[in-house]
Design brief:
alpha+beta; about 250 residues; ten-stranded antiparallel beta sheet; two-stranded antiparallel ribbon; single chain
Length: about 250
């Protein structure tokens, strides 16, 4: 009986050690990626930096640790983990007369893995352009930003989930075009039955080139916490975006 008890204790220790090794490896990979050479030289595709989704926008973008929402993957690729058979949301926002943002996000779970995908589209219509001479007449042109992303999330154990998304961002301004590959990486940990914390690096990748200019993608490093109450959801996010620091409550 004593030997069996000792064996169970050793198995438990080994299991926890194995999980911690996987977690430490993931955190180390995040640190390496997030501390990479992201020199700031002016960010492109600015319209894709706008907070998306009615609920996340209403919460000031403090959504890094909020799980099981169709828009969770837009703020932390680990957060959709365990969302269920299928969840999706479509959004449309119009600003002034010529600016609109459209998006769709969906996630579904299959065999303990949650698959997610999202599309963001932003357009500014009827921008007034002019030629190189003082006598040139004005002409209208458009600017378009679009982002496609897909990825997955899974649990390392019952309280820790990790996620990864890969994407492609395209920008068109008048007749000039540019595109770039990017990745999102995130972690979600449930510390108690009510408290979640999340870490994420978003839009990490090479610079986008349009004509002779190169622009950094609108990257963001996010850390957040949420405390689940019955009728209230206190949240706190710290965000570094384009070398600017923000706190969201």
């Amino acid at each position: 009986m004593k030997e069996a008890t000792i064996l169970l204790v050793l198995i438990s220790i080994f299991k926890k050690d194995f999980i911690m090794k996987r977690l430490c490896s993931f955190v180390l990979a995040m640190i390496i990626i997030l501390s990479g050479p992201l020199s700031y030289a002016g960010s492109g595709v600015k319209l894709l930096s706008v907070e998306i989704g009615a609920r996340p926008s209403g919460m000031g973008g403090a959504f890094t640790a909020v799980s099981n929402d169709p828009y969770s993957g837009a703020y932390n690729p680990a957060s959709p983990c365990g969302i269920g058979p299928l969840a999706a949301s479509v959004g449309y926002n119009s600003y002034w007369e010529n600016i609109r943002l459209e998006n769709v996000y969906a996630s579904f779970e299959k065999k303990s893995i949650t698959y997610s995908a999202g599309v963001n589209f932003a357009v500014v219509d009827d921008i007034q352009g002019r030629g190189n001479t003082a006598t040139s007449t004005y002409y209208p042109f458009d600017a378009h930003d679009i982002s496609f992303k897909t990825g997955l999330s899974m649990k390392l154990d019952k309280n820790i989930a990790v996620g990864f998304m890969a994407g492609w961002i395209f920008e068109k301004i008048e007749s000039y075009r540019g595109s770039a590959f990017n990745i999102d990486i995130g972690l979600l940990a449930q510390l108690t039955s009510k408290l979640n914390i999340g870490l994420a690096g978003m839009n990490l990748g090479p610079k986008m080139q349009i004509r002779e200019e190169k622009y950094q993608l609108p990257y963001a490093f996010r850390a957040g916490a949420v405390y689940k109450l019955t009728k209230f959801l206190p949240v706190l996010d710290f965000v570094i975006q384009d070398d600017d620091f923000h706190a969201h409550l």
